[in-house]
Amino acid sequence: MLLLQLFSKGLFRTMLLSIALPFVLLAQEDKEMKSVSSTYAITNVTIIQAPGRRIDLATIVIKNGLIVSVGKNLTLPPEAIVIKADSMFVYAGFIDGLTRSGVSKPKDDNKDKVKDPGNPPPDRAGINPQQDVRVFLNSSDKALEELRNVGFTVAQVVPHGNLLPGQAALVLTGAPSTDAMLLSHKTALYSELTGSGSVYPNTLLGVMAKWRELYRQAAQAKSYESLYASNRVGLERPVADKTLEAFYPVIDQKIPVLFRSEKLLEMHRILSLKTDLGFPLMIADVKEGWPIINKIKSSGAKVFLSLDLPEEGKKEKVKKEDESLSKTPAQVEKEGLEKRKAEAISNYTSQAANFYKAGVPFGFSSMSVKPKDIPSNLRRMIAAGLSEDAALASLTTMPAQLLGL
C-alpha cells in the first residue's frame, strides 16, 4: 500500500489530505464508489522527496499502489485518474517510533491473589516477552485515525503491560483491516522498568535484578541448546521455555530491546543494563535525555524522542516595583521557582535541537502525547532551534533508517 500525504503551504499546517492507494474513496450520495482504474496521477504538486530535496509543480504517477514516475512534463497514462493538487505539498508519511494506538488492552483476569507473592507465575509478574502484539491489533481503533490525521502513516506498536509485555510490530495506520495493518512483526522486544504491584518484582531494584536474571538464564539456555544440537550423546534434552526463548533474537543481535524511558534516572539504569548484558538497545518516549546526550551517543542506542512537551508558562505582566524596597522571602522563593520552571520547559522544548546538534540520529514517539497537540509541539521545537528539514527528517527518513525501513 502506498502512503502519501498532501499538505497545504507550510510544513505543519493542519489542513491534511491523506491518500491510501489503491483504496480511494469517492463520496457520492453517501455511497462508496469503486475506482474505474488503479492508475493515478497527482499533478501540479510540490514534491519533497527528502529533507532539502524538492521538485516544484511536478507530477506523480502511481500504478497498482506503486510510484512508477515522478517529475515534470510527464506523459500521463490514458487510464490515469487525475488528482489536481495545485498549491499543495506531498511528503512521505510520518513514522511513529512508539505508540499503543490500535492495540487493545487485554482483559485483566489474572489479578487474583497468588500463593507465593515472592515467586508468582510469569504472566502475573508482567513477564510475557513471548506475547505477540498482533493478537491485540484493532484497525477500527479511533486512535489510529487521530494519529493518521496528523500525518503518521506507519507506527511501531507494543502490547500493554509492565516489565516485559511482549513483541513490538510495525503497522499501517490507514489499513482497511486488522490483517492488512501489519507491515513487519517482532521488530523489538518491548520492556519497561515497572513492577507488578503486590508481587515480585515490585520495586525498581527487583525489576533490574529480575531482568538480569532472565537474560542470563536465556543466554545459558540458548548455549545449552546449541551444544545439545551439535552432539546429543550423554546430554539431557533441553526443556522448552517460551519466556527464555523470546530473548534469543535479542541475544543473537537480530532485534533490539525497546525500552520506554521518560526519566533521566531510568535511562541511566537502562544504559547500565545494556553495558552489562550487551544487547542492542532502542529507547523511546525520551523526555529528559539532554543531560546525557553524549552517553546515549556513545552507547549506540537508537533513540525516539517524546512528542509530548510541558505546557508553556503563562506570561504574566510584571509590575515595576521600587528597587529600594526589599523583597520578602516568599517573593524571592516564588521568583526562583518560576525561573527554574521556565528553564525546565526550555530544556524539554530544545531537546530535539540539542540531539540534532550533537549528531545523534533520532525519531519521534507519540506514546504520551495527544495527537491534537503534536503539530503545535513540533512548531515549538522548531522555534527552539530545530530546523524544518531536521524536523522532517526526524519524522520520515531518520526513523525509517532506525527501524530498518
Task: Describe the secondary structure blueprint for this structure.
Blueprint (H helix, E strand, L loop, with lengths): L1 E6 L8 E6 L5 E2 L2 E2 L6 E12 L2 E11 L2 E6 L9 E12 L1 E6 L42 H8 L2 E6 L8 E7 L5 H4 E10 L12 H27 L11 H4 L2 H4 L5 E4 L3 H14 L3 E6 L6 H7 L2 E5 L22 H21 L1 H7 L4 E4 L8 H10 L4 H8 L1 H6 L3
Parallel strand pairs: 5-8, 9-10, 12-13, 13-14, 14-15, 15-16
Antiparallel strand pairs: 1-2, 1-8, 3-4, 5-6, 6-7, 10-11, 11-12
Written account of the structure:
This protein has 405 residues and is an alpha/beta fold. The chain contains twelve helices and 16 strands. The two termini are 14 Å apart. The model is unreliable at 9-29 (pLDDT under 50).
List keywords for this structure.
six-stranded mixed β-sheet, globular, eight-stranded mixed β-sheet, 12 helices, 405 residues, 16 strands, alpha/beta
- Helical content stands at 25-40%
Give the helix/strand class.
alpha/beta
Give a count of the beta strands, DSSP E runs of length 2 or more. Answer: 16
CA distance, first residue to last residue: 14 Å
Note the main sheet: 8 strands, mixed
What series of H and E elements makes up the topology? EEEEEEEEEHEEHEHHHEHEHEHHEHHH
Record the strand order, biggest sheet.
9-10-11-12-13-14-15-16
Q: What is the overall pLDDT average?
A: 87
Enumerate how many helices there are, as a single number.
12
Oligomer: single chain
Label the overall shape: globular
Rounded radius of gyration (Å)? 25 Å
Could you name the ranges where pLDDT drops below 50 across 5 or more consecutive residues? 9-29
| Portion in beta strands | 25-35%
